[in-house]
């Protein structure tokens, strides 16, 4: 395979992992903002506020975990692509 | 007879995909040094043409002293110029090939990262043409420039920077043809800018997300919302942004505007509102350049083609005929007159 074609393939793979990373980050942010909006009114109900906050923390942690795991796999793929191309791009 | 280089090959879909991605997020690719980013060059048979005399002679065995440089628009590449020859339906041709056959211009096709700022591409084009004239195996006596859509704005910026630095090639430019170039901005680009601003401003996570995605569009697309801007005083200072001005017209060349219209009647309300589908017809006369003398656009050098959409402007036999007619009518004109 020609060097130029290889460079373009690596570029396409990098762009795909960049896009997945950016999309997952933005969707996670929007998701967490919506979760926060749903739980916010319960914070005004005195006796319910503390247990609801606990549930919110649990849900937020699970949500973050799911998105972080996707980002982690994506980062691994990005590293693999960089390694195939002989570049160190894992620290980005 | 020499086979016109422009007509000999079809640009593969992978090159088209790369050009579309460059148009959409080309500034990001450039910043990340991504392998998909296109470096501006003259392309011949889907490959960059090295700028040294031997390579040029291999690509163009019979070069002439008159050059025709074609610059594509947003998200396109030199393949946009190729169309089926009406005289020989089995063969492809292009404006470059037609101008090579008569009156004998050597056609050169530029490919570039259309997602970069228009002014930046203008700077790169000015440098590319300087290198071309230096490497060209014959002395260049005349250059005509043909720009489709954004390509016309890139040419305007390139001429400005070349004139600013007194590049020798700019003195050889006799005519510039703008095919559907949004000299006053494209309404669709302006609309997308407003939509993105509104979506981000609405206090809702979903609309903000959509607005953020919208804002990922390239600087090249964003630049299309108004007249092309250039740095007023040469290269910008790295510390402080240089003041900007509307790119002036090159006063030593003749400028020709070719516009399309979706309908039959250029005066019809739908045509006035929609133009060629992406770009509206220029105002008559067009916006005067800021402080650089009289407007060089005259009515006789504006042609409107009915039932011709934006993309067709780059591959229409009637448009090609008009360009050749203008070249023939004003053959031997020494300056912008």
Q: What's this model, at a glance?
A:
The complex is a heterodimer of chains A (92) and B (337). Chain A is mainly α and 92 residues long. Chain A has helices at 3-39, 46-84.
Description:
The complex is a heterodimer of chains A (92) and B (337). In chain A, 83% of the residues lie in helices and 0% in strands. Chain A has one domain (3-84). Chain A is rod-shaped. Chain A starts with a helix and ends in an 8-residue tail after the last helix. Chain A has 92 residues and is mainly α. The model of chain A has no long low-confidence stretch (mean pLDDT 87). Chain B is built from ten helices and twelve strands. An eight-stranded mixed sheet of chain B has the order 2-1-6-3-7-8-11-12, sandwiched between helices. In chain B, strands 4-5 form a two-stranded antiparallel ribbon. The model of chain B is unreliable at 1-8 (pLDDT under 50). With 337 residues, chain B is an alpha/beta fold. Chain B has one domain (5-266, 278-308, 322-329): 3-Layer(aba) Sandwich (Rossmann fold). The A-B interface holds A 7-12, 14-15, 18, 22, 26-27, 29-31, 33-34, 37 and B 14, 18, 21, 25, 28-29, 32, 34-37, 205-206, 208-209, 212-213, 216.
Question: How is the topology of this model organized?
Answer:
The complex is a heterodimer of chains A (92) and B (337).
Chain A: H1 3-39, H2 46-84
Helix pairs in contact in A: 1-2
Chain B: H1 13-31, E1 41-44, E2 47-48, H2 53-59, E3 66-71, E4 83-84, E5 92-93, H3 95-101, E6 106-111, H4 118-135, E7 142-148, H5 150-164, E8 173-179, H6 187-201, H7 205-214, H8 219-223, E9 229-231, E10 244-246, E11 254-260, H9 269-274, E12 302-305, H10 317-329
Parallel strand pairs in B: 3-6, 3-7, 7-8, 8-11, 11-12
Antiparallel strand pairs in B: 1-2, 1-6, 4-5, 9-10
